[in-house]
Write a structure and sequence with these properties.
With 126 residues, this protein is of the alpha+beta class. It has 4 helices and 3 strands, in the order E-E-E-H-H-H-H.
């Protein structure tokens, strides 16, 4: 979608219509969680009751936190968890390699060079 030039609610406020510069009119649900099918009276009353409860107790921090919560598909949570496990394993592996491998210090490197030079000098005299 490109730039949006017009936005309008439907007459019953269930849908939002948007028009953009790519000559498309898109229809959106005004409430993303609302079902598109025909809702029975009992379901409608249950939805309205839940909505009323959320409004009534919205001042409570726990309820406000739930309302602000971002609801994502389960797959996203699984992939995020798997990626965290993989990153932790890579960090643990790097730490183990660093802890169990012999890192040569500058002094050890210097002593190796002098030893090689001494051996070269001794071999010349032999």
């Amino acid at each position: 979608m490109h730039r949006v030039f017009a936005v309008q609610f439907s007459g019953d406020a269930q849908y939002v219509l948007s028009g953009s510069d790519d000559s498309n009119v898109r229809i959106w649900k005004s409430e993303a969680s609302a079902p598109l099918r025909v809702v029975t009276g009992r379901e409608k009353r249950a939805i309205e009751y839940r909505k009323a409860l959320r409004k009534r107790f919205s001042h409570m921090p726990e309820v406000a936190k739930i309302e602000r919560a971002q609801r994502l598909p389960k797959l996203i949570f699984k992939v995020t968890k798997q990626r965290k496990i993989q990153n932790d394993a890579a960090k643990r592996k790097d730490a183990n390699v660093a802890a169990h491998s012999r890192l040569e210090t500058a002094e050890e490197l210097k002593s190796k060079k002098t030893t090689v030079k001494k051996k070269a000098v001794i071999s010349e005299f032999d």
